[in-house]
Description:
366 residues; Methylthioribose-1-phosphate isomerase; four-stranded mixed sheet; binds 5-S-methyl-1-O-phosphono-5-thio-D-ribulose; Rossmann fold; 15% strand; globular; Four Helix Bundle (Hemerythrin (Met), subunit A); alpha/beta
Amino acid sequence: MQEEKNIMSFETVALDEAQNAVVIIDQTLLPGTTQLAVLKTAQEIWDAIYRLQVRGAPAIGVTAALGIYVLAKEIEEQDFEAFYQKFREYKEYLDSSRPTAVNLSWALRRMEAVCLQAGRQEKRPVAEVKEILHKEALRIRQEDVEVCRKIGEYGLSLLNPGDGILTHCNAGQLATVKYGTATAPIYLGQERGYHFHVFADETRPLLQGARLTAYELSCAGVDVTLICDNMAASVMSKGLVQAVFVGCDRVAANGDTANKIGTSMAALAANYYGVPVYVCAPTSTIDMDTAKGGDICIEERAPQEVTEMWYKEPMAPKGVKVYNPAFDVTDHELISGIITEYGIARAPYTESLKAVMDRKEKGEEL
Ligand code: MRU
């Protein structure tokens, strides 16, 4: 336990080379206890993602990339095809830990592509393939920092000093390697004296807004006010919110976005009150193979998360039916802009998102 250190100086997810392990902040213990978890086996990595010890789409992707490297390093086979068979088993297994955040499969596919390129196409020895996987995993991690910073710059261009900003769930530093996505403009504004007032939805049922967003923003010295999810419309009706900034787990080709359950409710209220809604989305979260929001697989989680988790006593009658979808889809019509590292996509999203992805495909500089 290292409670005296500010949470902002911890790394959300990192590679420990000496132990050959992925090291994460165990987010299930925050804000009360800051404790690192050391993940070495496939089961440990899978559990950490499933149990939300590490969560948030970009952080899940980085954990998977580092994780598959850690596992690949331990594979003993020297024949590439035998090595690849085990690699693929690990990849499929990690990919099954959570279904909605596309960053998970995106990162694993990227790792698999370099693995196949080096081992099958270029016929490199397995030891070299492992080194290439090592570099790619670290590149994915480093890119996340640069991408979030860029999203922060674009996001900040939409805001004025003193603005009130509402956010939902945690799309903060704890959901990424650094800066967060929805919080990146807030942190950059903080550096530049913008004095934002942030309203953090508590985010039922797992309270990522209360436990994580309110925590990291207050540790960073940002003016943050915690509200229950059902207070968002009230705060907007009073003119206290000039923009909604949220993250996302998957953006469909038409601009529909899946994010933490309750996001669409905040977006509906914001549209009623004329408050713009911005979705912050690294291109790793944009899934052009999914045509529309209705095609996104929405994770359903255990009823106990609604009835008893985080409470001293169960808060519902024993055996009551519970519906617990972890995400919802915000219709693209409710979204004023999708902020990527390549700029802000606006409606019609089928065209603007394609243009963003084309720039990425061409490898344009950020
Ligand atoms: O279930 P979680 O905590 O992983 O859900 C996280 C979110 O919904 C975030 O808003 C999203 O992943 C974007 S994180 C930059």
